[in-house]
Amino acid sequence: MLTPINLASKLDLFSDHWRPRTVAEYNGHDVMVVKVKGEFSWHAHADSDDFFLVLKGRLTIDLPDGSVTLGPGELFIVPRGMQHRPRADGETHLLLIEPAGMPNSGDVVTAAPRQVL
């Protein structure tokens, strides 16, 4: 049976930061929720763009030529291959869409393991 996915309920299931959880699959992509706080490392995704949609809180994405700050309901797409560093002063909730199995750090060695809720 097909049922809607409540993103807030999925986010209530965990408390750790920078470890995305897959909540759905869409045309070969993982639809994920994640809680973030503090800084992630500078990284790039050689083979795909990086999609960020803020659900709650504020996210700053540092780029080579400046920064972009997003609030709830705002999204930003980092072009493939571009170095970037997401960061959040307070806990922030995000929706991410990436090709299935894409490492969140751009490198399989340092990436968080894929987790499906």
Task: Describe this protein with a few key phrases.
117 residues, mainly beta, globular, eight-stranded mixed β-sheet
The proportion of strand residues reads over 45%
**Helix/strand class:** mainly beta
Q: How much is the average pLDDT?
A: 91
| Uncertain parts | none
Query: What would you report as the Rg, rounded to the nearest angstrom?
Result: 13 Å
Overview of this protein structure:
- It contains 1 helix and 8 strands, in the order αββββββββ.
- Helices cover 4% and strands 47% of the residues.
- A hairpin with a 2-residue loop joins strand 4 (59-63) and strand 5 (66-70).
- The chain is mainly beta and 117 residues long.
- The relative contact order is 0.29.
- The chain starts with 6 loop residues before the first helix and ends with a strand.
Task: Please summarize what this structure is.
This protein has 117 residues and is mainly β. The chain contains one helix and eight strands.
What topology emerges from the helices and strands here?
Layout: H1 7-11, E1 21-26, E2 29-39, E3 50-56, E4 59-63, E5 66-70, E6 75-78, E7 85-99, E8 115-116
Parallel strand pairs: 1-8
Antiparallel strand pairs: 1-2, 2-7, 3-6, 3-7, 4-5, 4-7
